[in-house]
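Problem 12. The chain below contains 197 residues. Write out its predicted structure in token notation.
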Amino acid sequence: MMRKLFVCFLCALFALPALAKNPQVELKTDLGVIRVELFAKEAPATVENFLAYTDSGFYNGIIFHRVVPGFVVQAGGFTFDFQRKETRDAIVNESTNGLQNLRGTLSMARTNDPDSATSQFFINLVDNTRLDAKEDQAGYAVFGKVIEGMDVVEKIVREPRGLYRKHPSAPNVPIRILDAKRIDVGDKTIANNTKGE
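Solution.
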């Protein structure tokens, strides 16, 4: 009897589909490394877009140009001297994917036009659920989560700001992403904990 149960267990185990591993990206900054997991199933267009920028080297050398304590840390558009980088075409808004703007999640920055996001993204410093999509309006699309390095994000928040009149929320000493690259996730699968319960 035990042997039959064991055989049935093995058959069921091998019949399960392989768990797809979410891609991960490492952002090496002036203050340390931030590692993020990207939710390709929930936000396919956004993740594809973010990885295209990553793979092309676009994010290398850009700065965290907007730091708002208790709200967000934003990057993805400017060099250290506040020159705006040329971007790819805007992408479709995926804010209705069921993910929420919780602390540590990555979302796309955009203008008032819901489908205007290009390269800029932000990391939520607190639960910003007011940024989520509502029945009658688009939100800000969550597409990833910091899985290592929130302490580095908090270091960025503690940097003095206010030196630049046109960019008052930028750190006085530019904090750069020195290198952004995909990393091999190996056999490690990390749970997606960004859905509201």
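Discussion. The chain has one domain: 22-182. Students who got a different answer should revisit the alignment rule from Section 12.3.
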